[in-house]
């Protein structure tokens, strides 16, 4: 089913106060990202049916807890997405190791009327709504100020849902990407002018720098984490945005 919707603020998320370090953007590979495989249970000791099996589980790694999205919250979210003329489909739940997964994943193909969002993306409804609000409230108005009378036709991302740790490290905390809370924005495509990609632009003094500064600054109104060029080396080619829910409503925008 294809619908067009929109939704309000619902804070979900996880995480404590630790500052997120988010890594480079591997393209989503959902087939690899989610797995429910568990270690095989150990056989019981012969003749002792009640003997506990030896513990073969690997050492626990820091996991992540996906927020609960009630059906009523999802319905409200979808209604909001429709207001923003988002084109989306609700998909089957996804699960993975270390807390990865999305109970109610949404595929978003248009984030505003006539503005495609690609490649294929999966995220929580709340994430999609934050994205739609940012596009409608910040990116489209910024586009309207471009001198070429440009029309925004596409926003391209590097990853949405993917089961991985922060910065793609083998250990450490799971990324907000692993529960569908995060998006890596790579570039903006227009009719009427060349694309604007996210790259280091400090001091360029041109309209592209102004556009990038505007959409990045405005992103902090709609997301609780915004990282990009200058935050660290791994963010020089994209904007990482997520809706992590931190104590006290703390926002990390760099
Ligand atoms: Zn990211």
Provide a descriptive summary of the structure in words.
- The protein has 254 residues and is of the alpha+beta class.
- It has one domain.
- Helices cover 21% and strands 23% of the residues.
- It contains 4 helices and 13 strands.
- The strands form 2 sheets. Strands 1, 2, 5, 6, 7, 8, 9, 10, 11, 12 and 13 form an 11-stranded mixed β-sheet that branches. The protein has a two-stranded antiparallel ribbon with strand order 3-4.
- Strand 3 and strand 4 form a beta hairpin.
- Helix 2 (71-83) packs parallel to helix 3 (125-144) and helix 3 (125-144) packs antiparallel against helix 4.
- The longest helix has 20 residues, at 125-144.
- It is globular and about 45 Å long.
- Zinc ion (ZN) binds next to strand 9.
Named once each, the bound ligands are: zinc ion
Question: Biggest sheet, open or closed, and with what strands and sense?
Answer: 11 strands, mixed
Based on helices, strands and strand pairing, what is the structural class? alpha+beta
Radius of gyration: 20 Å
Low-confidence stretches: 1-21, 23-60
Order of helices and strands: EHHEEEEEEHEEEHEEE
- N-to-C terminal Cα separation, in Å? 38 Å
Tell me the helix content. 10-25%
Number of helices: 4
Shape from CA axes?
Answer: globular
How many strand elements? 13
What is the domain tally?
1
């Amino acid at each position: 089913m294809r619908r067009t919707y929109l939704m309000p603020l619902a804070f979900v998320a996880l995480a404590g106060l630790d500052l997120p370090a988010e890594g480079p953007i591997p393209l989503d590979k959902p087939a690899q990202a989610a797995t429910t495989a568990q270690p095989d249970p150990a056989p019981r000791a012969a003749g002792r049916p009640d003997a506990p099996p030896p513990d073969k589980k690997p050492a626990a790694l820091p996991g992540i807890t996906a927020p609960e999205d009630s059906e009523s919250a999802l319905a409200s979210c979808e209604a909001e997405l429709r207001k923003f003329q988002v084109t989306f489909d609700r998909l089957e739940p996804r699960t993975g190791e270390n807390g990865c997964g999305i109970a109610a994943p949404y595929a978003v193909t248009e984030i505003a009327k006539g503005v495609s969002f690609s490649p294929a993306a999966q995220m929580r409804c709340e994430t999609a709504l934050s994205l739609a609000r940012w596009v409608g409230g910040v990116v489209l108005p910024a586009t309207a100020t471009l001198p070429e009378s440009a029309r925004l036709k596409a926003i391209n991302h590097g990853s949405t849902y993917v089961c991985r740790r922060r910065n793609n490290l083998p250990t450490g905390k799971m990324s907000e990407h692993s529960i569908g809370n995060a998006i890596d924005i790579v570039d903006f495509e227009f009719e009427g002018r060349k694309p604007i990609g996210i790259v280091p632009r400090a001091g360029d003094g041109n309209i592209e720098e102004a556009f990038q500064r505007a959409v990045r600054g405005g992103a902090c109104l709609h997301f609780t984490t915004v990282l990009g060029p200058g935050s660290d080396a791994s963010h020089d080619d994209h904007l990482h945005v997520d809706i992590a829910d931190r104590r006290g409503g703390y926002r990390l925008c760099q």
